[in-house]
Amino acid sequence: MTDELDRVRDHYRATGLTDRLRTALAIFGPEEDRLKPEQLATLDQFHTRGLAATAELANLAVITADMSVLDVGSGVGGPARFLEATYGCRVTGVDLSEPFVEAARYLTARTGQDGKVSFETGNALALPLPDGMYDAALLQHVAMNIADRSLLYREVRRVLKPGGKFATFDVVLNSGDPVYPVPWAKTPGESFLLTAEATCEAIEAAGFGTLVRRDDTAIAKAWFAELRAYGPPPSLNLGVVMGQGFAELATNLGRNLMEGRLGILTAVFEAVPVN
C-alpha cells in the first residue's frame, strides 16, 4: 500500500502550486480582494463536467444547511467551497496531496469561507476522522487511484452517520484497454478502474443501499465535444493546477469516453444502520 500511496502523491505533487495560483489569480485584482467561489470554477473542479457535475451530485444527495459534509479527495477545494456557498453547510475536505491541501486552504481564505470549510491531509483508506461524524460524503473522480476499493468504501461508511448519504461521480471501465496517460494516471499500473456494476457492488458490500444509479457517459461525451468546439481553454484552467501536460491527459480521457473504453457513473447511496 505504501508504494501505491507514494505513486499517487507523486502524480499530484504540484510543486509550487499555491504560488502559481497566486500569480494566476492576479487577474482579479490585489491579493487582499475577496474572491467569489464561482470565479475559481474553471480551475478548482478537478473532474469531468466541472461545476455542473458537482451541483448535480449535491442535488441528488439532498444537501442542506444543517449538514456536516465530507469531500473525500478534495483537491484544491472547489466542490467544498461550492457546497458551503450554495447550501450553508459545514464541509471538511481530505486529500492525500499536501500541496493540494495547502492550495485549498489558500483559496478558501481568499473567498472568506475558512470559517466553515476546512481541509486535512489524509489517506482515504485511513481517514483522520472519528466514526459517525458526517451526514453526507462526496467522492468525485478519486476511486480510479485506489486499488483497495472495499477498504475505501468501508472508510466512507465508517465516518458517516446511519442514514447518511454517499454520493459518487467516477470514471468506470466499459470495454477494452484505456489510452494513457489520463488525468489520474500516466500508466496502466497507476490506474485501478472497475466497471459500474463492480463499483456499485463494492459500495453496497461496505454497508450501503443504492438510492440513485445513473450512467452519465453520454452527457460527459457531449461536454467534451463542446469543449473542443469552443477552442482553447480560458487562462484559468486545470493546467494551472496540474501543469502544462494536462491538456494531453484531458484529451485522452475524452477519447476514451468517445471510443467506449470508459464511462461515467453517478450514484447516491444511503448508509445502512449497523445492527
Explain briefly what this protein structure is.
The protein is an alpha/beta fold and 275 residues long. It has helices at 2-11, 17-24, 50-60, 78-87, 98-110, 149-159, 196-205, 217-230, 238-242, 246-258; strands spanning 68-72, 90-95, 117-121, 134-140, 160-173, 208-215, 262-271.
Descriptors:
10 helices; alpha/beta; 7-stranded mixed β-sheet; 275 residues
Secondary-structure element order, as H and E? HHHEHEHEEHEHEHHHE
Strand order of the largest sheet: 3-2-1-4-5-7-6
Shape: globular
Instruction: Count all strands and give the number.
Output: 7
Q: What's the story with the biggest beta sheet?
A: 7 strands, mixed
C-alpha-based Rg, rounded: 18 Å
Strand content: 15-25%
Query: What is the number of helices?
Result: 10
Q: Give the helix/strand class.
A: alpha/beta
Which segments are poorly predicted (pLDDT under 50) over 5 or more consecutive residues? none
Helix content: 25-40%
First CA to last CA: what distance? 31 Å
Q: How much is the average pLDDT? A: 93
